[in-house]
Amino acid sequence: MPRDSSREFTPKVVTGNALIEGDVIYLTAADDWTRDLARAELLTDEATARLRLMMAEGQPDIVVGPYLAEVAQGADGPRPVHFREAFRSTGPSNYFHGKQAGGA
Amino acid sequence: MYSYSEFDAAFVAERNRQFRQQVERRLSGALTEEEFKPLRLMNGLYLQLHAYMLRVAIPYGTLDSRQMRQLAMIAERWDKGYGHFTTRQNIQYNWPKLRDVPDILDALAEVEMHAIQTSGNTIRNVTADHFAGAAADELADPRPVAELIRQWSTDHPEFQFLPRKFKIAVTGSPNDRAVTMAHDIGLQIVSREGEIGYRVIVGGGLGRTPMLGKVLREFVPQADLLPYLEATVSVWNLLGRRDNKYKSRIKITVHEHGIEDIRARVEERFNLIRPSFGGVDQALFEQIRAAFAPPAFRTRSSEGYHAARAADPVFRAWCDTNLAAHRAPGYAIVQISLKAHGATPGDASAAQMRAMADLAERYGHDALRISHEQNVILPHVHEADLPALHEELRRHGLATANIGLISEIIACPGMDYCTLATARSIPIAQQIATRFDELRLEHEIGDLKIKISGCINACGHHHVGHIGILGLDRAGAENYQITLGGDHTQDAALGQRTGPGFSAEEIIPAIERIIHTYLAHRTGPEESFVSAFRRTGMAPFKHALYEVEHAHAAE
After folding, report:
1. Which chain A residues are within 8 Å of B415, Cβ to Cβ?
2. What is the CATH number of the domain that holds B55?
């Protein structure tokens, strides 16, 4: 069963917003949080992804609204598939603010 | 303008004290996000795509220079040096940190402002005609009644858990600049045999199911207004659908039950509760009205103004687009466009906010307004001061002469900021404005309102734009639907969809084709876009949008 569903499962990362700053954060393989999508843990197995999400949900003092976002494996780590996740990983397009400016 | 009573100040201070503790409890882990979310929303604090967002009410769009300077201070100290003015006469800060928000709310309270009921299922910030108290065509100033409604609706014990949000707008002029036909309740001040009262419009709204409001009662006397409003909201509070949020707004309740049924229920409820309004509200209304007494208008020569108009074509062009008729002789209403070509609609930097505050103080009887069109208004400026004012505005990048033209676009924040958005709005607005500026066509095109929303919730009022643009997510790509023929005024109309949407790359050329079709079909420059559309109908526009393109594609 896990084998079958993992074949259809598309890669994910765990992401949400930081409690204090409100900016976008991603769960890493080292169990901490990063602001850089490329450093996020790529989850290719559905059961593992669910477990990692549950772990994130257990950290309400760090992250708000964690969820699994679809990504693809890029040369330098996970990269966004949908344009919404692309904007979340960089910042707004009208000002050089947010992640693209290297800050929250 | 209205000043807080001791009661108002104590109420806001107490709410801020409570919220400070709520934030502390959230940060300490004593409150979960599920517990905290409704509390922060009650105080206007959202969590958006990249950061928190604080929505601050500017009641009926009115503020003075002291308040505008404080908004600038907040932008600089706790945000990224700018603020975004919205279609509901609020200002939004896009980057506050959670731990700073209690301090921001205290700073707002210092100048009699707050973020209460700018979110959640409550009665929201009451909006009004941004020319209130100044317009030449005005029957009565809508702000005193808007303030009365604000006091009645703020923390109203019956209305803190409504089926959904509830928005009220008031106009005191027959020329509706407050979009009253697209609000849950729209109030139009009317006169009957010399007595001032209200036409009550109910069940308008844009969003997923756009509807224009219907007349609930043609005339409600001043003394009956609050009990009548209370009866209306109360009927909906009981009847409104709580099982499905897409059917919860009063427009659906009116649609499902019929206006006659709702009217009968409201009248019954009104008769029941009317005696409980013992007249305190009327005494209060008189006090509020006194606070909105017009400034002491001066009689001065306008010679300098006429000379400057004759001598300076740039000044003249700005006057032609950005001024509106004032009721006092020699005065003008100045509209400061926050829509410089290529800039983000509705954004003002802290420096610009301070500049506008200074100019309001120096030339404008210390009065400023925020319009639902995301501009700033100086409602009372003497013509003699216009040349100097214009020069100052130019120095601060605030003299864009485009009010009512194609580049003066309403745009919601869209997917650049908003978690609900399905596509971006701001870049589309920027590109349209830049493109038609390059083409040097916008004065030739004349009166044209483009309104852009980044999702079906329609914060950008696209349904009532002459050209409406709706950004959607179609199969993982941004896609833009066009509607034509909408109207936000007293002649309110919902736009009609042209057909299939356009990609982000195709949308600007599509708008260009619409404009060229209008220019080719209009009877002359005096026939505006929307008039021409009403005459010709959709056919020529549809042809230009779809058939011509396909012909090119086939070549």
Report:
1. 83-84, 87
2. 3.30.70
